[in-house]
Amino acid sequence: MDSVVKQEVPECNHPLPSLNDRLPELLSNNMIDSSSSGSSDIDDPNDAALPCDLLAPAWPLVKFEEPLPVTEASPVSAIYPVNMVVDGREAISPVVGGCKQFWKAGDYDISEGGDAALTTSVGMDHVRVHPKFLHSNATSHKWALGAFAELLDNSLDEVCNGATYVLVDVLGNEKDGTKMLLIEDNGGGMTPDKMRQCMSLGYSVKSKIANTIGQYGNGFKTSTMRLGADVIVFSRCLGSDGQSLTQSIGMLSYTFLRGTRKEDIVVPMIDYEHRGQQWNKMIRFSQNDWNRNLATIVQWSPYESEEDLLKQFDFLNHHGTRIIIYNLWDDDGGSLELDLDTDQHDIQLKGNNRDEKSIQMAKRYPNSRHFLTYRHSLRSYASILYLRLPSNFRIILRGEDVQHHSIVNDMMLSQKITYKPQYNPEIMPGASNMVADVTIGFVKDAKYHIDVQGFNVYHKNRLIKPFWRVWNAAGSDGRGVIGVLEANFVEPAHDKQGFERTVVLSRLEQRLLLMQKNFWSTNCQEIGYAPRRRPDKEALESKRRKSTSGTNKRSRPRDRAIEGGVLREASLPSGSKVAAINEVRHVTPDSNSDIVIKLDEDDNESGKRLMKLQVTELLSNLQQEREKCKALEIQLQEKQQQIEELDKEQVALVDMISEERGRRDALEEKLRKSLKDASTTIDFLLDKVNRLEQGRKD
Question: Which of 158, 287, 371, 444 could disulfide-link to 367, CB 3.0 to 4.6 Å?
Answer without folding.
Answer: 444
